[in-house]
């Protein structure tokens, strides 16, 4: 990747505004998981209550405080319940990475939506959350790989509440916004993790050449983004093989489309969740809803799904 492509995230990074406090939020180890296509099954149709657990992990000298949001037993709705019993079932992993100046609580709309829809969502808080250099040198991407490894291991940890409830066979999903979106794209390019079968980089810039992973990749971006260049994300999209899609919020800035009060938030939410339902549950009905999910007067949709 040329230096020109890397420079597309400009000096305006520190001035980003929007979701939460702020919006910006070698190969990665593959671990023991051998990913395959998800066995087709219908993703859960009912909403779950949301549980949350916190883990104080690390990778070398890097602290990886991680909250895991997950489907919990009990009535749907309300705030996450600490250490709530996990719901009956086996659920795939869909990770979320925050942006600059943020932590695992900044993007509650995305992490809570994933858990309520039937996904186990680890959300790390990166210890150097204002250091874009740690994104460009791969530390954040490598941190995510470590969090995925630790989360998957809970499935076979004797006595752990998640034991037997994590789908370890269908691969994993990753997603994130701005610096978190760059981290996500880095896991598909410069620091690949071959466990990944579904990814959603949001407001990212191009982090390098595709590494050949067999992943379904959805980009989400505003075409008036002053922080992460829209054309850089378009170039990243063009380089990837199908299946892939690009949801553009026309006239939108760096992340207003991630907030529930935004006029076209439903297009973000429904497309985001159905992408993971297709990628991680193999739910073809979710795939067939994608164009309808994404379509509105304020969006445009491009896809190559086969």
Automatic annotation (TrEMBL):
GO biological process, any: lipid catabolic process
Keyword Aminoacyl-tRNA synthetase listed: no
Superkingdom of the source species: Bacteria
Protein's recorded name: Mucin
Gene3D superfamilies per the UniProt record, alphabetical: alpha/beta hydrolase (3.40.50.1820)
Keyword terms: Hydrolase, Lipid degradation, Lipid metabolism
PROSITE patterns: TAT (PS51318)
A GO term, aspect molecular function: 1-alkyl-2-acetylglycerophosphocholine esterase activity
Organism: Streptomyces violaceusniger
A Pfam family reported for this protein in Swiss-Prot or TrEMBL: PAF-AH_p_II
